[in-house]
């Protein structure tokens, strides 16, 4: 017999009755039933009930074991009494009588319990992550992650893509976040960087003639943590293709993502890939207040400025006299009560606004009437025009925000989400996808007037060189994101592969030719030797698994995540270097004051 096990803790069933078996695993829990000791023995695969009676030669030894001890037992498989069968587990028809036991690893008093659903502080869970990962929910999440990655690989191979690995130690490259720098011992005073993404390398692969590339790529960014983002490193399905248009990329990656969600979504509805809408960045901001809208929520915001211009509501009327201002309405079907309107007003105040204007419609003699302070100020004719534009009726409401869109869009988007949740308008059993397209390449600093890149500087401008000759703020890029249920899952673009257009694009943002050649020399040089048109995207694996696992925090689907302060409490990182290490690297640490 094998030194540790003849079967796993999920293998045994009624057909094994009478067999002598060997199992190894962890003591999930111990139960003393009047002289009979029952142990739920757990391994990665499942649980088997084992028991020991006072007649067993190892009874005294079995009495000593405690939760999470790692043990090996030999015993005889017996059928459970029909009244004691546990239909919830595969081994529920049998139990194993212990005839021999070996303690493979005793456990100290546990800082957190593996059995049960107790909540523990994140600090405790991360410091003892090796115990936290033994919990059933965490095991399921990590197996799900492995299965998702395997499925992605197979789907990409089936589409004719080949997997290549790009360097981990490279040069610094701006991808929208801070680099992690790595000092060079052989080149004192110089630094490598960990790649924020394989962006330049995958583009160089296209120049090298590889046509279709993918990689399950680690990426490293020194970022502030969020619930849906790791502060140090993450993995993405990285994709690039030659001789493709934006639509080709959509047609390639959409079935892959849809297939993964159909396979692992637990029966939740997945919108067919062919039906995923393409929404311009401008419209997404207008309708949803965000470039990653949750389309499970049917609410669409609308511009209603004309109904307030010159109206009796002086705040909005005067606001509209200023350039670049708007009034937007957030429809709230079913929200037509003063109590709900007051709650939303309180929400706006928590977000730092004086409040949110509202109108709600209620039954009245002869039909319906509009109520609320705004209705009184602007009068019945304007109020009715607003109701008709928004398609609302009795029992509905609308909320209003005004100003320069960039100043209130974020709050408006949050309000739309809260309204949808409070009124149960969102379909929670669905994954709703949308491609967000036509991103602006440039933005203007409101104070300095300086033009800089708003989004990826490597995207091809729509219209090429000709587009760059006009107003930079009108330039749109072949850049796109895939949003799902309020999260950005995929980001990509058709690349700017022509040096002359790249130099002009960077010149507009204040970067001279010499600086571009210095910072992106490898790629710029390669583009002068027959670069093909190419494009691609990257899908965030951690975030996809988070959605599939129905988790609100990305750390629940990462094996060994950092905490909110980008610290590894289990391994003690970051740590202070040894003096010898600093000397070898010709570095000196300047103490913080």
Provide the spatial order of strands within the biggest beta sheet: 6-9-10-24-23-22-19-12
Number of helices: 18
Based on CA inertia axes, which overall geometry fits?
Answer: globular
Radius of gyration: 30 Å
Low-confidence stretches: none
Specify the biggest β-sheet.
8 strands, mixed
Structural class: alpha+beta
Q: Ends: how far apart?
A: 64 Å
Strand content: 15-25%
Q: Whole-number average pLDDT?
A: 94
What proportion of the residues is helical, as a percent range?
A: 25-40%
Number of E strands: 24
Oligomer: single chain
What does this 3D model show about the protein?
The protein is α+β, with helices and mostly antiparallel strands and 593 residues long. It is 29% helix and 25% strand. It is built from 18 helices and 24 strands. The strands form six sheets. Strands 6-9-10-24-23-22-19-12 form an eight-stranded mixed beta sheet, with helices on both faces. A hairpin with a 2-residue loop joins strand 1 and strand 2.
């Amino acid at each position: 017999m094998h030194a540790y096990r003849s079967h796993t803790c999920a293998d045994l069933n009624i057909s094994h009755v009478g067999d002598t078996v060997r199992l190894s695993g962890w003591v999930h829990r111990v139960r003393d039933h009047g002289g009979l000791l029952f142990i739920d023995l757990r391994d990665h695969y499942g649980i088997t009930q084992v028991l020991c009676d006072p007649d067993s030669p190892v009874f005294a030894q079995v009495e000593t074991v405690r939760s999470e001890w790692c043990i090996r037992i030999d015993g005889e498989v017996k059928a459970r009494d029909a009244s004691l069968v546990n239909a919830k587990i595969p081994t529920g028809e049998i139990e194993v009588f212990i005839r021999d036991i070996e303690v493979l690893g005793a456990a100290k008093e546990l800082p957190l319990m593996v059995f049960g659903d107790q909540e523990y502080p994140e600090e405790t869970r991360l410091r003892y992550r090796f115990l936290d990962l033994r919990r059933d929910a965490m095991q399921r999440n990590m197996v799900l992650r492995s299965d998702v990655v395997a499925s992605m690989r197979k789907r990409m191979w089936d589409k004719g893509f080949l997997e290549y690995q790009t360097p981990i130690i490279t040069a610094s490259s701006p991808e929208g976040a801070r680099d992690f720098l790595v000092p060079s011992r052989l080149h004192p005073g110089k630094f490598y960087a960990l790649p924020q993404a394989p962006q330049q390398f995958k583009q160089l692969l296209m120049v090298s003639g590889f046509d279709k590339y993918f990689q399950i790529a680690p990426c490293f960014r020194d970022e502030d943590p969020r619930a849906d983002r790791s502060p140090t490193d993450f993995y993405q399905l990285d994709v690039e293709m030659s001789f493709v248009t934006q639509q080709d990329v959509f047609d390639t990656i959409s079935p892959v993502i849809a297939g993964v969600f159909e396979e692992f979504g637990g029966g939740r509805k997945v919108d067919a890939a062919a039906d995923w809408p393409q929404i311009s960045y401008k419209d997404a901001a207008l309708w949803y207040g965000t470039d990653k809208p949750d389309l499970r929520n049917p609410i669409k915001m609308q511009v209603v400025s004309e109904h307030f211009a010159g109206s009796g509501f002086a705040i909005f009327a005067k606001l509209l006299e200023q350039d670049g201002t708007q009034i937007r309405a957030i429809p709230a079907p079913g929200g037509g009560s003063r109590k709900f309107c007051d709650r939303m007003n309180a929400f706006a105040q928590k977000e730092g606004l004086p409040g949110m204007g509202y109108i709600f419609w209620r039954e009245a003699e002869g039909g319906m009437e509009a109520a609320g302070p705004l209705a009184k100020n602007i009068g019945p004719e304007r109020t009715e025009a607003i109701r008709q534009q928004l398609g609302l009726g009795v029992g509905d409401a609308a909320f209003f925000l005004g100003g320069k869109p960039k100043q209130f869009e974020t709050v408006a988007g949050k309000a739309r989400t809260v309204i949808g949740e409070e009124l149960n308008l969102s379909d929670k059993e669905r994954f709703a996808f949308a491609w967000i397209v036509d991103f602006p390449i440039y933005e203007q600093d409101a104070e300095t007037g300086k033009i800089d890149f708003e989004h990826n500087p490597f995207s091809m401008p729509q219209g090429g060189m000709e587009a760059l000759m006009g107003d930079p703020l009108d330039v749109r890029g072949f850049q796109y994101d895939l949003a799902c249920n309020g999260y950005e899952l995929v980001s990509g673009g058709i690349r700017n592969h022509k040096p002359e257009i790249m130099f002009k694009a960077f010149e507009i943002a204040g970067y001279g030719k010499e600086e571009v050649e210095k910072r992106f020399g490898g790629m710029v040089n390669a583009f002068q030797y027959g670069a093909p048109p190419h494009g691609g995207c990257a899908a965030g694996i951690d975030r996809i698994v988070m959605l599939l696992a129905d988790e609100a925090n990305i750390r629940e689907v990462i094996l060994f995540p950092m905490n909110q302060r980008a610290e590894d409490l289990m391994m003690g990182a970051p740590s202070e270097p040894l003096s010898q290490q600093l000397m070898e690297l010709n570095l000196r640490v300047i103490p913080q004051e």
